[in-house]
Amino acid sequence: MMRVIEIGEPGGPEVLRTAERDVPHPGHGQILLKIAYAGVNRPDALQRAGMYAPPLKASDLPGLEASGEVAAVGPGVDDLAVGDAVCALLPGGGYAEYAVTPAAHCLPVPEGLDLKQAACLPETFFTVWSNVFQRGGLQAGERFLCHGGSSGIGTTAIQLARHFGARVFATAGSADKCARCTELGAERAINYREEDFVEVLRAEGGADLILDMVGGDYIKRNVKALADEGRLVQIAFLSGPKADLNFAEVMTRRLTITGSTLRPQSDLAKARIAGELRRDVWPLLSAGIVAPVMDSEFPLEEAAAAHARMEASDHIGKIVLKV
Fold first, then answer.
1. Whole domain around residue 165: which residue ranges?
2. N or C: which end of the chain has fewer CB within 10 A?
3. Sequence-separated (6 or more) residues with CB below 8 Å from residue 274
4. 304-311 — which CB contacts under 8 Å span 24+ positions?
């Protein structure tokens, strides 16, 4: 048996509860991970609220990333062994002592990082790499605007975009958060409570790429902030998925509006992302060129408090659960 955190019913953080379940068994191509730390992410809160159902055959427990040791390997796994220290992208089930996941979605703990830091990597780095670089096609010299610059996604996107030669702009909601964004490599951090990011970016010639998780009225404003032939990549909708938008501007200025979510993608697609991360990003982590930004740690049993902190938006960087 293992300790887990279940979602009792759709609702606020208080619906998270401690329970016991059977330890799962790895299937073909899977490993069983003995979890040391689990990352806390916005999709976990959406699932808890009843707004983000897990994929078929995935665990109904929240938790999309974790770190720990390989406890068992299923048939067909020959590149990982019991005892290997890894971090892993999970289809669900991270708020527990054990979870199963495809071996191809595991990556080694980068040299110089501990398991706590490694738990913060998979969901964030998979999301940023696939949306900013694969889907968004960010190139050196381009102007990149990242909303939510002080979030786990934002702090990762700023560092990677800066390393690969982009001019980075970020929005955040306080002076402290803006200062952290500039420390991480943003050329300009915009306090959205005091400044209009549209005006700032238009004065610079417009953004070539925008990464947005806000949605709502930001969608129309993002279009205004884009340079001609710019790209908008949407990864979440904290302010809602609907907007009144004049698509004539999209056509005449040759703009691209796209987006994705990570969890519903195929195992093969996620494995391909993992392969590119191992090749192009993991050496940067081992060399200390980029690093996860840590906010706070909570015991597994205090997952509700971790969710409350995340939803208050007072955090900078990643929140983890110690299992």
1. 125-259
2. N
3. 89, 104, 105, 106, 107, 126
4. 304/13, 304/14, 304/16, 305/13, 306/40, 307/13, 307/16, 307/40, 307/44, 307/45, 307/48, 308/13, 310/40, 310/42, 310/45, 311/13, 311/45
Same domain, 190 and 233: yes
Residues 29 and 90 in one domain: yes
From first to last of the 323 residues of the chain, give the pLDDT tens digit: 999 999 999 999 999 999 999 999 999 999 999 999 999 999 999 999 999 999 888 999 999 999 999 999 999 999 999 999 999 999 999 999 999 999 999 999 999 999 999 999 999 999 999 999 999 999 999 999 999 999 999 999 999 999 999 999 999 999 999 999 999 999 999 999 999 999 999 999 999 999 999 999 999 999 999 999 999 999 999 999 999 999 999 999 999 999 999 999 999 999 999 999 999 999 999 999 999 999 999 999 999 999 999 999 999 999 999 99
For residues 228 and 283, state if they share a domain. no
Please count the structural domains in the chain.
2
- The DSSP output letter for 292 is P
Q: In this structure, are 105 and 219 located in the same domain?
A: no
Residues 244 and 192: their CA atoms lie apart, in Å, by 21
Domain match, 132 and 244 both: yes
Vertex 23, ends 267 and 29: CA angle to 5°? 30
Cα distances (angstroms) measured from residue 207 to each of 7, 29, 138, 241: 40, 42, 11, 21
Q: Which of 229, 259, 289 is the last residue of a domain?
A: 259
Distance from C-alpha of 286 to C-alpha of 217, rounded to nearest angstrom: 39
Query: What would the two tokens of residue 3 be?
Result: 């300790």
CATH number of the domain within which 241 lies? 3.40.50.720
Same domain for 252 and 129: yes
Q: Is residue 83 located within the same domain as residue 15?
A: yes
One domain, residues 32 and 158: no
Q: How far apart are CA 309 and CA 311, in angstroms?
A: 6
